[in-house]
Amino acid sequence: MDAHILSTLNTKLHVGDSPLFDDPTLYRTIVGALQYVTLTRPDLAFVVNKVCQFMDSPSQNQWAAVKCILRYLKLTMHQRFVIPRSSNLVLQAFTDSDWAGSSDDRKSTSGYTIFLGNASISWSSKSDINNNSLVLASGEYHVITPLIQILVIFLVIS
């Protein structure tokens, strides 16, 4: 709908990319509240995670990104998280990783999502602390392990 607002956040945010924001307590309060919003608005999960990475010393650019998220939230407040009816109840899982993708700390980001029919029923994204060669050599397998565990649980339940 109004995804073009969030597409402006496509620029990479970095530590020290602009002068420091003058009220870091306000930044932390707003971003902390946005973390709770992502429970019912998974479309915001990525961008909220991104601005959460700058809680220590937010810059003016990062504050501008938070305001952009708030504008998007205001324009889409009537959207809901709906699991649509579907006769196709196929369980599908997707995973991806970005090894050492952050230019600030060289951490890796990985994640997965699980679909039942057309509805995403589980998802996860995390920034990896371990960035050694063993983890890098294991590639996608490092990300697949928790995904397989959740899929096994779904299969046992059904």
TrEMBL record:
PANTHER family: GAG-POL-RELATED RETROTRANSPOSON (PTHR11439), REVERSE TRANSCRIPTASE TY1_COPIA-TYPE DOMAIN-CONTAINING PROTEIN (PTHR11439:SF450). This is Mitochondrial protein. The lineage of its organism: Eukaryota, Viridiplantae, Streptophyta, Embryophyta, Tracheophyta.
